[in-house]
UniProtKB/TrEMBL annotation:
UniProt subunit comment: Interacts with PEX5, probably required to target it into peroxisomes.
Residues covered by the Ketoreductase domain: 25-206
Protein name: Peroxisomal trans-2-enoyl-CoA reductase
Residue ranges of the region described as Disordered: 265-290
Catalytic activity: (2E)-decenoyl-CoA + NADPH + H(+) = decanoyl-CoA + NADP(+); (2E)-hexenoyl-CoA + NADPH + H(+) = hexanoyl-CoA + NADP(+); (2E)-dodecenoyl-CoA + NADPH + H(+) = dodecanoyl-CoA + NADP(+); (2E)-octenoyl-CoA + NADPH + H(+) = octanoyl-CoA + NADP(+)
A Pfam family: adh_short_C2
Pathway the protein contributes to: Lipid metabolism
Chief subcellular location: other
Family matches, as PANTHER family: PEROXISOMAL TRANS-2-ENOYL-COA REDUCTASE
SMART domains per record: PKS_KR
Biological function: Participates in chain elongation of fatty acids. Catalyzes the reduction of trans-2-enoyl-CoAs of varying chain lengths from 6:1 to 16:1, having maximum activity with 10:1 CoA. Has no 2,4-dienoyl-CoA reductase activity.
Gene3D superfamilies recorded: NAD(P)-binding Rossmann-like Domain
GO BP terms, alphabetized: fatty acid biosynthetic process
Amino acid sequence: MRERRATIRAVSASEIFAPGLLDGQAALVTGGGTGLGRAAARELIACGAQVVLAGRREEVLAATAARLGEAASIVTGDIREQEDAERIVATVLERHGRLDLLVNNAGGQYFTPAEAIATKGWQAVMRLNVGGTTRMAELAVERAMRPAGRGTIVNVTLSPHHGLAGMTHSSAARAAVESLTRAWAQRWAADGIAVVAVAAGHFQTDALDKYPEPVRASVARTVPLQRLGQPPEHAWLIALLASELGAAFSGSVVTLDGARDNWFGPWPPPTLADEAGEVPTEQRRPAATR
Ligand SMILES: CCCCCCCCC/C=C/C(=O)SCCNC(=O)CCNC(=O)[C@H](O)C(C)(C)COP(=O)(O)OP(=O)(O)OC[C@H]1O[C@@H](n2cnc3c(N)ncnc32)[C@H](O)[C@@H]1OP(=O)(O)O
Ligand SMILES: NC(=O)C1=CN([C@@H]2O[C@H](COP(=O)(O)OP(=O)(O)OC[C@H]3O[C@@H](n4cnc5c(N)ncnc54)[C@H](OP(=O)(O)O)[C@@H]3O)[C@@H](O)[C@H]2O)C=CC1
């Protein structure tokens, strides 16, 4: 069996963790087809886990799974919808009979001044980042982790510790996820479940292409390391938290932001505002790709 796996292995061994760190584990990564989710899935597989990638776009998930090999499989669904979320968790259990790790990675927002956020836009960001994250966590606990008496939930958030003046909806949503992480860690401790949040700074994924160019250009220069985070660095932290050490972090928010946070300074940002004080906003994704 070992030999067979070696011949069909699509993901090379972890660069930093011992082989077999996560052997036998089943993981669910929401938003696993792209960016940080894809990198996490790759590292979890490199450490021995079986990984189910969830998201709304089948072609994106399928392309990633093809690159990751047979330890990866996909399930489509929208985590904002209860039926979809239930089906996602049920699919993991049908395939693997267990769910050891939920990486609650699907999330996002758009960049715009607070006063320009429509009620519907505020609700859209809350439904995804707070509602979707909560729904997935509760389903994973009820259907898989509590019955098994073990499990780990990693909530991927973006670090809002200075407040996100250009994304106030996400600032509130991510702060809520941090608070929920602490509360869930207490609530589910007796069930053997660890809950941790990873508060990320700026990582070089395709998703950053959607932010206004002047914003992107200025960011790397303001990180002490003078560079953006790389997805494998984020993925290594996810794998570490999936290991036995994860339990010791339960209730913690681990900040991985190069000491930059996602925001600092006044509004409007002097480097972005034009003479009238206007700041570039974000274009919407074309409907077909949303
Ligand atoms: C280095 C660089 C550093 C850049 C600066 C700092 C970056 C910090 C680092 C963080 C990086 C990341 O998080 S990177 C990850 C980014 N990835 C994502 O954001 C992907 C997921 N995001 C999304 O799907 C969307 O942003 C989200 C709003 C959450 C959901 O969109 P949907 O269209 O599905 O939402 P719906 O429920 O249909 O509601 C749509 C309503 O939302 C509002 N709305 C949605 N997009 C809008 C937009 N662009 N401008 C205005 N309004 C918008 C409108 O009111 C819409 O109503 P109508 O007008 O009536 O339709
Ligand atoms: N890149 C960065 O610098 C940072 C990113 N983050 C956070 O990390 C996470 C991943 O970011 P990143 O990889 O860069 O960005 P992406 O936009 O590539 O990732 C978002 C993923 O979530 C999926 N998704 C979005 N909405 C839903 C939904 N309603 N149901 C199911 N899946 C959904 C998307 O797939 P699909 O559209 O097919 O559903 C996509 O795969 C996000 O939560 C992001 O906010 C935090 C800090 C920094």
